[in-house]
Amino acid sequence: MGVTKGNLVLHKVSNLSLFDVAAIGRGIASAKGLEKPRIIADCSNIVYVLSKSSSVVSSVVNLLMKWASSGNVMVPACDGMVRPVCKQDTNRRNATKEISRINAFVLRKDIRQAKTRLLNDQLDQNERSSLEKSIATMERSCKTKETQATSKLPNNFVDELRRELSDSGAHSVIPATGGFVDQIAVAEFQADSYMSEQIVNNKAVMVMTRDSDIPILCGDDCIAIKEFTKDSFEIVCVSESTIRTAMSYIPSDSKAKFTPAQYPLFDGKESHRLRALMMVILGCDVYKSGMKGVGVPKLNELIKNIGDKTEDELYVELHDELSQKNNLTKDVVDTLVDALLYEPSNEASTTRTYIFDQPQSLPKYLEEFSVDEAFKGGSITPGPDIVTCKGVGDKTHLFLKACGTKNCCKCTCAVCTYCNGEIDKKVYCLACLASESVVPELGSIQSKSIAKMREELVNDRFDGANDLSPDEVEDAYEMLNFLEQYRKQANHSVPYPLYTTSEMDADRTDKWEEILDIDFKGGGAFLAEPELESKHVPGVMKFFAKLVLFREGKKTEWKKDHAVYDALPELFIKFADKSRVDSGFRLLARCVRHAFDTRTPKLNNKTAVLVLHNDDVGIHLRTGMPASMKKNIYESGIVATTNDVLSCKCTCQCGSQNEQRIVCVHNLAVLYLLTLLLFEDLAEHLLLEFAACLSADLWEVDKWSDNVMNDLRDSLVTLMSAAGEPVDKINDDCSLKDLLENFVVGTERRKAWKQRIKDPPKPSDLGPISEKLFKSTSKQAKTATMRCAKIEDQMPPTVTMATESNELTFTPNYVQVWSLIEAADCESVLESGYIGIELLSMRSDRQASGIDRLERTRMSKQARTDWSKLKSLSYKRSIRHIDVKLDNIPTRTRKEASTTTGITPKKRKHNAKSVVTPSPPKAATLCKNGQSLPLNDRPEKKQKISMRCRKCNNNNRDCPNLKFHCVTKYPEEIKAAKPSKDRVLRREGQILLRQEIMDRIGESRQSTKKLYVCDAHQFETVIKRRLVSYNGKKFVQRYRLTVPCGEGYASSLSQSKHVSKGTGSDRALRFILDDVTKNEVDNSLHAESQDLDELLHQLETDYKSLANDVDKVKNLEEQNLVREAKLEIERSNATQAMKAVQQIAEQTCEEHHIPMNTSLVQAAGMHLSQGNANKMTVTNKHFFHSDPIKKPDERKKAADYEPTVVLGMCDKEVKRRTGFSSEVALLSYVFVVCNGHIETIQKRNSSLTWYEEWFMVFEYVWGKSLTRLVDVEKEYCIRKHIVESIISAKVDIAFRCLNSWPIYASYDEDVSLRERKQKWKTKWSKKRPVCWDMTDIVAYGFTDANMQRITYSQYYGHNCFKGGIFTQFCGWQGNADLWTGAVSDSDYNRRAGYLQSQQQFQNEDLVETKNDDGQIDMKVLPFLNIYDKGYRAKMAAFKNGKQLVLQPDWADSDRTFNRYQTIGSASVASDRGGNERSVNVMKRPGYIRRGFQPNMCPIRFNKVWRTWGFQSNFMFVPIL
């Protein structure tokens, strides 16, 4: 491509770095007045250069982003869909590919014949050896020809590039440099003309291409980046002065090298017409042959011979020379020159522009270059003669007759000099050449190349297809064709009508009738369209209702239905049941998966067509459906009714096309998108529009039959449920308006309903797994179609995860930890050589130097006390001091425990309170009930009776000290369709309890009265049986009932409704008490006793002074009345004293077994005797209650077992089960992570001992002896969910310690420990080296397409997580957070955050250095990061504290290393070998090695990964 030998006329500058080129771009941009350097990249040329990449599109995007990172604005330019007629080089390439294909087929035939001869003929050794060499040569040649026949540019390259740029974020501005990748510029014809125009008009600073025609045609001001894929770049230009100016922008320390052009023919040539003519002479895309016998050296000599002339004169001389040499007319030469100058340079679908000036006239050959339609009418000249070539396949093209023409000897068609071949010196067109060579015609099934056949075998999952020989590939492909024919034989059994896809693609079809076009942007507004006939409205509503109608119960014959069956309406399950391949489960599962792919477009902006088939309304839907793991978007569609799938289409590999009848996994997903749209808001809008149209009388409702109306009501109820307004029951006579009335005004419930179907947030492309929610698509679908009546039940459950303590870190107390290690006699662990223990010892000594001796002694003494306590607690299990005690005690006592542990029990609603307690009485006085002192003349209001004992007739007014217990009411019916067994048992127990109490208090069982029993009676607990029915099965259930003592309905112990008078002696005593009581006077007289005394004294005094007898008689009568009043008061006091003595005698009598008649108690004014109610009361339960008796649990509680592991285990057993080399190592690590705090060490989550819990966690993570939670449950006799809580608690403690300890060993610590090896002492002197590497942790295949994509690693070939691992040369190692597997090593290195952590660490850990004056300064010593060669880490490390990077050298293609590169790479590889061993250490635990499994918590998994990196420093000797 370009100009033949064009590199000989270009000046170049090589050995440029990316920063050098960026500097040149900024300098040119400043000179041209551009804000930023803008570089136009020729994408076709880049694809040609990167054609060997596994993903060409991704490679192009990475290249553009790399160049944009230095501050450039990269503009990708692509060729248009139309190639200009004049570009004959395109026709040459197409012809060359076809000839290569033909030659490859001929060679394949010759190879097969040679192999047959080698197998069957009798050959001597020399002949056989010669034939084998010939076969090998032909096979290599055949492979080369097939490669040449393959197109390097993908057919949909522009679309794929546009999508990849968008997905990768390439269009975003890089904050640090300001560079970015601009939108793709698609030229109308060729990208070359667009790029040239941008340079000529100063819109860009450089172009990126290896073609020489652009810098030659544009002239002196154009600089092209010729070498752009390696780290050493190269720019070229026809002008030496332009190149020199560009070099002036480069820093002085650059290694750039200038090489002048060998023949600077175009340097200083200002005439673009002269430059174009010289390109034609040398040979270019419009005239590849050029002037006969003239190349760059000959042209240089020809120009010298012409002498010193002006450019116009030189043009005339060269024009004539070309015409004479090649026997061309002037029109032909001018046409070729115009073809270079007047090719339009605009983008597609924009106004025509040109590189230089607009043409004034054009020949017919260049008519497509016209300015506009008016130009074609008056400015087109006939020009040279034009001939039509037969071309390649069915594609013909035009060419100039003067350029040479031939005719096929077989079909006599005209062909150009490229599109022909010869057999026995006879000229054939390419089609006839293939026929004569017995080669299949291009485009036929048999014309496929070996590479294409091999590719199809690989796509068909043919094992080892890449290892097959060409002959074996052909044989295997024939088998593939046989299988394809076998699959087609199943077409006769296609269910439903399922018409061919061609019916769906046709403009009109007679298979179904189109009713109405609908646009989902308008929601349900299409119901008001006049084109929608009234007779179709019920069918339309029925169809949409079917899409949201779910069926309860079992859907399959499996033991348990998969979750996807609960997430899909009945219509989809019915369609899938008729699958010819399996039960249809895969169709349903993939339907949900594709529908919830975040790349899947919603239907709210789509259109559809309502159709009618056999009186059933359906829909015709089309939309794009993304591939699961590819970036392809398939065009999928479906035509379906309420009963049938009518037709399908999909452009995927398995999809239905043309005359096929296939339902693939993408078709039902299209229909399911409509279901999700209905649940989102379409169902609501449909109902509102339906109600509006119904009110406006738009339809002829009176013509709808009763059956139609009933179906329509059912459809409306179903849609109302989907819209969030469920209806329980409707009457048959309910009108449509009444049914819709509540829905139209009820909006609050629907607002809450919509909250549950918000689209799941689109996950960031890549990131830490702890920020991801690994939720299956079945669960997502079930949430999106959740159906229930209560608003709180409609909302999806909130995902909650265990969080750590508010204190995420602590200050390490190394002295306290080491004191506890010494107290436990574990100091021998220091001899093991573990780097963690050595750092702990060093830091403890350094910290202890700042503590006085007395404090250290106290800490040692306290540590010995703590260890003694820990030892005593490790030999016996207990439920005391457990963090969460409720889960470790039997179920029957949990409610009692909730009152002591502070856990609020679940509240229950009761129709009546269990215990009714009246207000407490006032202070007791020895007076009759109801009496009061005469301090207040206002009469007291009489208290009403609200509770009366059914057994003894006591009431709350007369007996205020008694408690009254309400008899249990008859329970209500259970409304739930499938109530739990416990609920049924509770209800039956309440019924039995009420019946038993009613019998005992003498009341009918059928009575519905609200009755009470007072505390004055005896109560007991009895066991009764009742026949219970549940799930169609009957069984006898025993209950423990709390009831009054056994006074049955006919029992002599049963009290009558009226109080008995008792026996004869009781009656006589009552008469006496009644007579005595009559003598009692009102208490109001008690306060007048003193007044009576004063009054009597006054009367006696007055009597002495009276003289009249009449007055004396009256005075004596008054004195008698006063004395009688005083006597009455004295009698009342005596009566109350006698009753008080009797009360004391009765209440203190030892013979309590002698009962006292109730009537006597009341007559004597005594308190009624209390029963045993206080002893029968149970906290948080109704007084009268029933408890179902369950079968006795023979299992012991965990606390009843002896500890599984205890202190003093042998080291061999400890190592086998936990990985720790000894028990002292295990205990030392426990002390470390708990910071020496005994409270943290002994903190438990179960009845296991503290040692058992720690040991169990280590054993489970190590994963050798215990691999499953059920194994842990069996081994330690503890429930599985408690095991998980223990693991989470211990991992959180270790994670907190990890965050509290320094991430790295300090510089002094690193030097002190690593200098034990002389190798590191000399090599890393005054350096802070750290090795970084990446590894994979296997993960399961996710059903969610987004999670599948972001966790699948192309490098490892499976779903995984990736994590960074570091190693310091002192031996300290660790890791970074796990990220999703699709992240690249370089991206992880840049974004994971450990470079920032290292920057902070080096800024805090200053290093002593001597300055020039000999004084000591504290300076920052940056980290030296040692990576593998795959990282692009230098810029990222430099931006974070100017950290250094050391990597092995690497070379492209077959380039060899020099001696220094070889030695340096070997040295780095040798040093990094230790880090590879660190990777192995990080993956030793079985928990991590088994990978991420379904239902695992990503947060916990990441914490286990992180804490293991910390723990390994206390378990293994340093690997370096």
Largest sheet: 9 strands, mixed
Q: Roughly how many Å apart are the termini?
A: 55 Å
What's the shape?
extended
Structural class: alpha+beta
Q: Please mark out the parts with pLDDT under 50 across 5 or more consecutive residues, or reply none.
A: 746-763, 787-806, 884-938, 1048-1060, 1080-1087, 1150-1154
How much is the radius of gyration in Å?
A: 49 Å
Strand content: 5-15%
What is the tally of beta strands?
36
- Average of the residue pLDDT scores: 80
**Helical coverage, percent range:** 40-55%
How many helices? The count is 53
Description:
- The protein is an alpha+beta fold and 1520 residues long.
- The protein is built from 53 helices and 36 strands.
- Strands 1, 2, 3, 4, 5, 6, 7, 8 and 9 form a nine-stranded mixed sheet that branches. Strands 29, 30, 31, 32, 35 and 36 form a six-stranded mixed sheet that branches.
- Helix 29 packs across helix 30, helix 29 packs antiparallel against helix 40 (1223-1233) and helix 42 packs across helix 44.
- The radius of gyration is 49 Å and the shape is extended.
- It starts with 10 loop residues before the first strand and ends in a 9-residue tail after the last helix.
